[in-house]
Amino acid sequence: MSIHVHINRDGENNLRELGWAIPQYPETGEVLFDGKPAGYINNFAGLIVKDSAAIDWLKSKELPSMTIWNIL
After folding, report:
1. What are the tens digits of pLDDT across the range 9-66?
2. pLDDT of residue 63
3. Residue 20's CB: how many other CB atoms inside 10 A?
4. Residues 3, 38, 21, 23: is their CA dihedral positive or negative?
5. What is the predicted pLDDT for the residue at 68?
6. CA atoms of 36 and 62, how far apart (whole Å)
7. 3-state SS of the chain?
8. Residue 69 clears pLDDT 80, i.e. is over it
9. CA atoms of 47 and 71, how far apart (whole Å)
10. How far is Cα 8 from Cα 25, in angstroms, rounded to an integer?
11. β-strand 66-69 against 46-49: which pairing, if any?
12. Are the C-beta atoms of 49 and 55 separated by less than 8 Å?
């Protein structure tokens, strides 16, 4: 399973404050959740999350500046 997350810079900062490790724009690359690889972020597709624990965590939250798309 993977999800595509539309997120802006404020949303990225919110996730960082909640313990996510996300490369600072304009950098791209691996995203960590709970210290483990959870997906990646790039400047075209945005945030792609593949880890089931991270997906469940995101789906359970009402976070501003973030929309979950394409739950596959």
Report:
1. 999 999 999 999 999 999 999 999 999 999 999 999 899 999 999 999 999 988 888 8
2. 87
3. 20
4. negative
5. 87
6. 22
7. CCEEEEECHHHHHHHHHCCCECCCCCCCEEEEECCEEEEEEECCCEEEECCHHHHHHHHCCCCCCEEEECCC
8. yes
9. 12
10. 10
11. unpaired
12. yes
41 is written with which tokens? Answer: 């972020």
Return the structure tokens found at 71: 């739950």
Question: Residue 36 corresponds to which tokens in the numbers above?
Answer: 């483990």
pLDDT bucket at 1, cuts 50 / 70 / 90: confident
Read off the tokens for 47: 């945030």
Tell me if 67 sits within 8 A of 5, measured CB to CB. Answer: yes
Residue 28 one-letter amino acid: T
Residues 6+ positions from 19 with CB-CB distance below 8 Å: 33, 34
Question: Tokens for 19?
Answer: 């313990």
